[in-house]
Specification:
Number of helices: 18
Number of strands: 5
Largest sheet: 5 strands, mixed
Order of helices and strands: EEHHEEHHHEHHHHHHHHHHHHH
Structural class: alpha/beta
Shape: elongated
Strand order of the largest sheet: 1-5-3-4-2
Helix content: 55-70%
Strand content: 5-15%
Distance between the termini: 97 Å
Oligomer: single chain
Number of domains: 2
Length: 365
């Protein structure tokens, strides 16, 4: 028996001036804006490079086969765009002077707007739905598993919205967006950790921009243990994932990964996350980075080896490293170098070498 496909929404054309950005857009949750339309547009323009969309619209027009999805507002003459806020920002920036006045790259926006000559009355193709829950799964799948990827932070933020605001459980959300339950719970946990850090006065803006680093860090059992973070299976919706007594450790971890006002980050890229886990799990390594005696991952690993390595092997490694350094110095010398400036250093080297020889000979007597 044939089964009819359910059609969602009603196609319509709406004037641009009746369309509003979505103040409840979970990707834009931030303490940095006041939810005014102009401020939301400025935020979207910066975070999601709406200027590139504006250039395309000015050059090619707005394609009718990419309608905005809207819901009615309490104002009978306004519609909230629940899908297509980046495109709407581009349209608003092209059509309204007061909107682009608040944009970064204002001069470039002015040039694009002049070439587009877009009227506030222009009719925009839209699809009206009765409420946003009708298209939640479509939006989630499109931007998380589909071709129009959101950033990892935006994906996690939307998952949190579906769980905490829409009231769905992990299994339902996983089915809605085309991800496994484990992927959903992990993203939700990482988002709530970032949110808890921010509310505790710990996180910087780097946490959002480089959210994938936190995701990699939470795949390390040692780093999770350091802050007592739950596994995906242990995550409880709407709860704060990190115990209060571990907030200081959370602050440490954020600082090691992203840096803070006082010191730069301990790691340089995600490939060092596993090494950071090894350092944190070792008491000597942990002490080295906490005290500041080790300011790089390499130095922290060296601090671990300095305690655990056999003394004879330690001496051999130091001597081998010194020999290699001397060979590199020898290769760098050419006939034009003024050797007089190195006389003191060479004298120190000879003295140290004599002392080492004597120490080793005394040990063998």
């Amino acid at each position: 028996m044939n089964k009819n496909i359910t059609l969602v929404g009603t196609a319509m054309s709406l004037p641009l001036y009746e369309l509003e950005l979505d103040v409840d857009n979970p990707r834009l949750i931030s303490d940095s804006h006041d939810n005014s339309q102009a401020d939301l547009a400025s935020t979207i323009a910066i975070k999601f490079e709406a200027i590139e969309v504006a250039k395309s619209i000015a050059r090619n027009g707005f394609f009718a086969n990419e309608p905005l999805i809207v819901i009615a507002t309490s104002d009978s003459h306004k519609w909230t765009v629940v899908e297509g806020n980046r495109r709407l920002t581009a349209l608003l920036g092209l059509a309204f002077q007061h909107i682009r006045d608040g944009f970064y790259q204002k001069e470039e926006w002015e040039k694009i707007a002049e070439s587009a000559s877009l009227s506030k009355d222009i009719l925009i193709p839209c699809v009206k739905v009765d409420h946003r829950s009708q298209v939640a799964s479509i939006i989630g799948f499109r931007h998380i598993s589909g071709i129009l990827d959101w950033t990892p932070y935006a994906q996690a933020s939307y998952i949190a919205h579906l769980i905490e605001t829409e009231g769905h459980n992990f299994e339902v959300v996983a089915e809605m967006i085309g991800k496994s339950r484990t992927e959903v719970t992990n993203l939700y946990r990482n988002f709530t950790i970032a949110r808890q850090a921010s509310s505790s006065g710990i996180a910087s803006t780097e946490l959002e921009g480089a959210f994938s680093l936190l995701t990699v860090a939470m795949s390390s059992p040692h780093l999770r243990a350091h802050i007592s973070a739950p596994t995906g299976r242990e995550v409880v919706p709407t709860s704060t994932p990190i115990p209060v007594e571990k907030i200081n450790e959370l602050g440490e971890l954020v600082g090691w990964i992203f840096g803070n006002n006082d010191t730069p980050a301990l790691i340089e890229d995600s490939r060092q996350i596993s090494s950071l886990g090894r350092v944190v799990a070792n008491q000597n390594g942990l002490q080295a980075i906490r005290s500041g005696t080790a300011t790089t991952i390499e130095a922290a690993l060296a601090a671990i080896e300095a305690v655990t390595i056999d003394p004879i092997e330690k001496i051999r490694r130091h001597l081998t490293a010194s020999l290699n350094a001397l060979r590199m110095a020898s290769q760098a010398i050419d006939g034009e170098i003024n050797t007089s400036q190195f006389i003191d250093v060479l004298g120190d080297l000879e003295e140290e070498l004599t002392s080492i020889k004597q120490l080793l000979l005394d040990d063998n007597d």
